[in-house]
Design brief:
86 residues, mainly alpha, 59% helix
Amino acid sequence: MATMTRRLQVLLDEERYRRLEQAARRRRSSVATLVRDALDRTYGLQGPDATEAADRFLARLPLDVGDWTEAKRDIAGAYERAPDAQ
């Protein structure tokens, strides 16, 4: 874990802070950890940018799997041939 050397002061209204406290409690973490994690996810401060990766994945062309009834028949046949099939 990186050594924390910088302090940031952010003023929030009561409702926003209450929501942060509740979320932190559910995660069993501190509000500060929750905020750091949100910054990392939003701005990609650590590791690859997950939002960019998700966008690339969702932009892919659909995979043609053919006729569903044929695929279903193949799956059922494989299941029936399995050694532990009943």
